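Appendix B, example 12.
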Amino acid sequence: MLDISLYSNDSFFLAELRRDLSAKLERTMQGACRFQSLSLLQTSLYDRLDSPPDLCVVDLRDDPEEAMAFVRRLRRNAGTEIMVIASAPDWAMAAYDADVMSYLLWPPDVSRMAELVLRRFAQRFQPQPLQFSFRTASGTQVLAAEHIIYVEYSDHRLLIYTDSGKRFSTTAMRLSFGKATEQLLADPRFVRTHASFLINIMHVSSFGQYTVTMDTGVTVPISHAKKAEVNGRFRRFFGREETAADSVKLAIRN
């Protein structure tokens, strides 16, 4: 959740900015932004917050000197980013000197404002792709999880099959299959279909009664004990209530 506080003495502008900025951000951050609108007369409320907002947008127009004093106080609170709206270039430069995230001249371009927010907080809503690391006889290897088609557990080793046609074999390990692959299993794209197999849902081309066929043509078994879990993971991943087989057909069709 991204917490954004808007400060201005113009109540009409606050309502308009909250509405327009929220609409722009919702396209990327669906349901992930929480707004609070406050008058600059209420800046003391900031000092009593248990945790500061992620971003404060401060309108400097009404009382630039007092507003800039507030901006400088905000900058002393680590972890809070600030965006200012200034009526003149000299106040914009004063804000720049105060090390704010960005400044906009009046009237502010809300589309530009949304772009700046998305760029600054992109990592929170677009995390880096999962990297899976493992030890082989030739050293530690790192793979982007999206390139892993399936993993097999055999003779205390992981056999990792990729979409480039390569197969990696880890060194012998004392860890259980589940423990060795818990990082992958925390990702909604992966599910164990069998005591010795784990698949990437994104690489499934067809779904049978007790098998799945991967897009490389390899057939991976689904044990009776894992069937309900596999079906559930498919339904949650595709966000629908149909069977896993229906989910695969729909994904292929689209």
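The radius of gyration is 26 Å. The longest strand covers residues 148-154.
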